[in-house]
Amino acid sequence: MHQIPTDPADDLEGAVRELLAQGIDIRRQVDGLTSEMRRRTMAFVVAILAGALILGVLGTAAYLVSLNNRRAIAENNIKFCGLVESSASSFPAPSTPRGAALQKTAAQLLTDLECDEQ
Fold first, then answer.
1. d(Cα 14, Cα 24) in Å, to the nearest integer?
2. Does the predicted TM-score (pTM) go above 0.70?
3. Which residues have CB under 8 Å from 43's CB, separation 6+?
4. Alpha carbon distance 80, 110 (integer Å)
5. pLDDT > 70? residue 1
6. d(CA 17, CA 81)
7. What is the mean pLDDT of residues 35-40?
8. How confident is the model at residue 65 (pLDDT cuts 50, 70, 90)?
9. Is 89 left (phi over 0), alpha (psi -120 to 50) or beta?
10. Is 113 helix (H, G, I), strand (E, B) or coil?
């Protein structure tokens, strides 16, 4: 069988149409992947922001608890200072070595509790 020669322009035109169709398919695939990438990126950003918000809230709560504890400790130290001051008083003078050691320890405790500053 004898083959009819084809025109090179027709072959070229067919090849161009085929490449154009492939280009359109590739473009659709790229658009789909771009959309998926945007969705995943947005989910990642939302997760990071939510984590940062949670850490901020927890940090603030911990700081407020710390401030509350410091205030409570200071109030209790003030109440305790009166009791310790009576033991640290040098009047009457201790008559035993144990009494002198207790008086010295009470004086140190007054300093540690910062009773002198109140």
1. 15
2. no
3. none
4. 9
5. no
6. 95
7. 92
8. very high
9. beta
10. coil
Q: How many residues does the chain have?
A: 118
| Rounded distance between C-alpha atoms, residue 74 and residue 90, angstroms | 25
User: Cis omega (within 30 of 0) on the bond before 92?
Assistant: yes
Residue 42: is its pLDDT beyond 90? yes
Look up residue 1 and give its two tokens.
């069988």
pLDDT at 114 over 80: no
Q: Report the C-alpha gap between 26 and 5 in whole angstroms.
A: 33
Distance, in Å, from the CA atom of 19 to the CA atom of 3, rounded to the nearest integer, reads 26
Can the peptide bond before residue 97 be classed as cis, meaning omega within 30 degrees of 0? no
CB contact at 8 A, 98 and 104: no
Identify residue 74 by its one-letter amino acid code: A
